[in-house]
Design brief:
The chain has 161 residues and is mainly β. The protein is 13% helix and 37% strand.
Length: 161
């Protein structure tokens, strides 16, 4: 697991990691904008959660967590729970936002059988722009999310009126 740490808190973080018997390895990446990356040698989600809980006690220490999964590790399947909007008139362009869980950078929205250029917002939201011609007739258009590892979510229907 790779954790970006505010460089001002790195000595406190090192101490906490040593107390947890975790050998912090400072990644060989440049310190950019006051951020130092630390790698932890664990794939245990229980250990990762325990470490992150302890590190959150250091004000401003953790800037963002980026799990580093081995290539053969099972990735969580994307879950699609809602569309916004869930319906709309045909022959109009708009931005579609999908909500769900387990979204990662590189996920793509499939709308009506075509992959769309997708913006990753966070692990629960993605968006894409649909042009006027993408919804040329009334009816239901299937929508699902495809992960970078080509795992797909369930399908919801966008209702075109």
């Amino acid at each position: 697991m790779r954790i970006p740490i505010a460089s001002t808190a790195i000595s406190l973080v090192r101490g906490i990691l040593r107390d947890l018997n975790m050998d912090p390895i400072e990644a060989h990446l440049p310190v950019v904008g006051g951020v130092q990356y630390v790698d932890l040698n664990t794939n245990s989600t229980t250990e990762q959660a325990h470490v992150l809980t302890r590190l959150k006690t250091v004000p401003g220490a953790i800037l963002l967590t980026v799990p580093v999964l081995p290539d053969d590790a099972p990735a969580p399947l994307p879950v699609l729970s809602a569309l916004s909007p869930a319906s709309g008139p045909h022959n109009t362009g708009f931005t579609l936002t999908v909500q769900g869980a387990n979204f990662v950078s590189g996920c793509e929205i499939n709308f009506g059988g075509k992959l769309r250029t997708t913006t990753f917002i966070n692990s629960a939201s993605l968006s894409c722009s649909l042009a006027k011609g993408d919804i040329s007739k009334t009816g239901n258009y299937p929508v699902f999310v495809l992960s970078p590892r080509k795992n797909s979510s369930g399908t919801l229907l966008f209702a075109s009126t």
